[in-house]
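Consider this:
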Amino acid sequence: MRFKFPLIFSCLTILFFWQCSSTKNVSIPKLKKGNWSQLQSADGSQPVKRHEAAFVKVGNKFYLIGGRRMNPVSIYDTNAKTWTNGAVPPIELHHFQPITVNQDIYILGALTGGYPGETPVPNIYIYETATNTWKKGPAIPEDRLRGGAGVAIKGDKIYLSCGIKDGHRGDHKKWLDVFDLSTQKWDKLTDAPRARDHFQSVIANNKLYNIGGRTTIAANNPFKNTIGEVDVYDFSTATWSTIKDPIPTKRAGNFTLLLGEEILVFGGESFTQEPAHAEVEALNVKTHQWKSLPPLPQGRHGTGAVILNNKIYTASGCGNRGGEPELSDLWSFSY
């Protein structure tokens, strides 16, 4: 089914832009209207179609990773403009938001198995881009396992937020946990104001934002229970709050990235329409005001977005709510 996981985008990219936005005399990028372009590979190659997966950047390459089924990693070389296949993960990994640590892609807060009783993955899995190899990483505490969770990185600490324990059937969590890369230890932090799954977290200005998602109940229309409220964790006070204005278009399976002072929220799915959402909405992290941006040319959920050389890129995902059709396209947006 549907997640979002996104990020995806690369959370290392998120961290980079968060640092830039907190530095004096830095020019904040502004989006222009329109200018989405579909990209064709130089040799006709395409990525493996997938959803409930991730789209991330490491160096000058893009990686489509995970998703339902045992999919090989799809790698896009931005210099050669070609897609190639990488290694297949050791287990099925879906419904996660990836992060990058140096040249590695970390997957945690993921699900594995089939709908609707998917199970949380008990370990961090790491894809090493330099060697095209997978490895099983540290265990996640057994009493804090869940999937469809938000994941973000700040310094050498990874934050795992909310999620769902029992696949798409229920047991939604408000949890916030932190994994210290330097000590390899987990700690529990203050619960969020509300549970959610199928969403993404973003860190900006020393705060963690939980945006979008739902509380999924397969027996009662899994697309319902979308969440509009945006919950914010302040690292300086270790407390949560909820901003005044909810996201204009409630959806789950959305994906996000931070661009300057704005969190961009792309796509998603909901019970209000069959096609996947194409909306792109931006939250200013200083004013907490929303604005609409040029929509995706093709709505989608269950993928991610990345930034490279003043362009936003997104690829694959699913074009309708649910699992079909899976897409194999690549788009860019100049700003």
